[in-house]
What does this fold into?
Amino acid sequence: MTDALNVPLIEVDNISTVFRGHGRTGPPITAVDGVSLALPADSATFLTIVGESGSGKTTLSRNILGLIQPTHGAVRYRGQDIRKLPARERHAFRREVQPVFQDPYAAYNPFYRIDRVLRAPIRKFKLATSRDQAQAKIEEALTAVDLRPGDVLGRYPHQLSGGERQRLMLARIYLIRPRLIVADEPLSMIDASLRTLFLNILLDFRDQHGISCIHITHNLATAYYLGGGLMVMYKGRVVEQGDMDAIIAAPSHDYTRMLIDAVPNPDPTKRRGLRDVAQS
Ligand SMILES: Nc1ncnc2c1ncn2[C@@H]1O[C@H](COP(=O)(O)OP(=O)(O)OP(=O)(O)O)[C@@H](O)[C@H]1O
Ligand SMILES: [Mg+2]
It folds into this structure.
């Protein structure tokens, strides 16, 4: 697939997802209601999606990953509806758009050692031509996410801490070199000291490897750390969309204002706090 001019990497075109109601008589639930977004193909960007619980964020991300089909509208990857991708493009999509799950434990086969977990994508996407090259790539990937190959390779996923499992997932992504990561609340399972490391790895991926990211979170402070675009969802709809700094300086929706007010007083030694931006 080529980077044709002006064709977005990913384009969500006015999609809705309507779930059947609970039981036979329950009313249908419109989880996503006419949402559109686009990420450019010619530069790596971040888009953060925030919204209260039940506002449709996960449902939107599942549509983008092709795990569910929209009831209305379409998701296009490099201009092609992801429901209609020919086999070769489908394989490319599977490589180029990678999920990061909230609980990485669910993503691993508990009976496979870490070596095998990381060799699987190498085989599937033919990322190495020899066993030695595969081993070298695995060690490079683990080192890139601050894991020591000698410490983790012979172990099983359950023998790692939650934060180590998160980083293992990022090592897998480092190997695969996708164009887009879709990360749904990736930080909610790890403690504060590891959050910055995790976010810095995402920034490295963007700046050094051209990997874009759609990042879903409840926490506006982590979104602000990453910068880029911001989309605020409320009851399945988009209520704000655009440049993060601009939205935080002049929020137009009550829910956005509430998110800004919920951020604790910032550490003055770190990046400027949200309140400073809102007031400047
Ligand atoms: N498979 C499903 N069947 C029926 N209803 C669903 C299904 N998945 C989600 N919903 C409903 O759709 C709405 C949106 O859910 P979704 O999981 O997308 O929200 P969310 O923004 O990710 O919330 P959270 O922040 O709690 O993760 C909710 O009302 C939810 O109950
Ligand atoms: Mg969710």
Confidence is low (pLDDT under 50) at residues 275-280. The chain has one domain: 10-104+179-279.
